[in-house]
Amino acid sequence: MATGPDPWTQLAVNVAITTFTHPMGYVKTLIQVGYEPIAPRVGKNMFFRKTLLLPGFFQYAGHIKKIDGFFGLYRGVTPRILASISGSIVARVTTQKLDEHFPSPQEEATESKKTGKVSTQEFLRESAKLTVSHCCGAVVSHPFQVVAVRAMVQFIGKETKYSGFLNPYREVYNENGIWGFFAGLVPRVLMDVFTLWLARTMFHIFNNYILDENMSNAKEIRNYMHAITGFVAGMVTYPLGLVSTLMCVNDSGLMAGSPPFTPLYPNWRSCWRDLSERGLLKRGSSLFFRPYQAGAVAIEAPILTPLD
Fold this sequence. Notes:
Helix content: 55-70%
Protein name: Mitochondrial carrier-like 2
Strand content: under 5%
Oligomer: single chain
Structural class: mainly alpha
Organism: Holothuria leucospilota (Black long sea cucumber)
Subcellular location: Mitochondrion outer membrane
Shape: globular
Membrane topology: Multi-pass membrane protein
Strand order of the largest sheet: 2-3-4
Family: Belongs to the mitochondrial carrier (TC 2.A.29) family.
């Protein structure tokens, strides 16, 4: 009897989603490194007050398309797909092996299915197993993530050294040695682990101590809370993802990873401190409503005012 979605079907869905959303990830990556090729314009914020606004996703993507064509929006998509595939497979296999060696007691599984609630012991056990599987997936997939980020930020300096199928991996090794494939890994793993535990802890508290199982729509509320807690946790841990992206490209031989575009950071903690001091730990967290922040961009166009 099937106990879940077919793994190959799920993998295919993940690849499709990664491919479809890649332009958004591409634009987000360029914003994260501080590249703003389109001038901010005077607009109105949510309180209808005049402010400077940076271009949103569609305008930014239109700029990329104008220069590189439609398929230019998919620069770096191949290593991103490889990262998604490798990470998903390793995480799934690791989870299966952990379930075999550390199975949940039958009575706890039965009680969980019956009431929808999970004991604290089961919560800790499953969270620990997911932590291990997430970390393994991140380590295996990170070299592809490094190549993807470097391939995307080439757009800034119009470089080609990280283009192609095999050449980017040679370039990473030539520039930074074997450790170059793991640039930015520590903040990425920390982000994954903190997001996992924060989201699961918030959901566990809500599900076990706040949600009334006798409510007619308890199941729907539980599904909504899964999404909400994941979203909130992602917002809290976003700065770690930003630091990871910057460290992937830092000292890569690309214009976007070298002075004067960006400082050379000796480690990810230095990058965090620099961004924190400049108030930039949320840079790139929004793709659609983007107030202009002085000092938040490394390359920018002149400020424009709207046409009368």
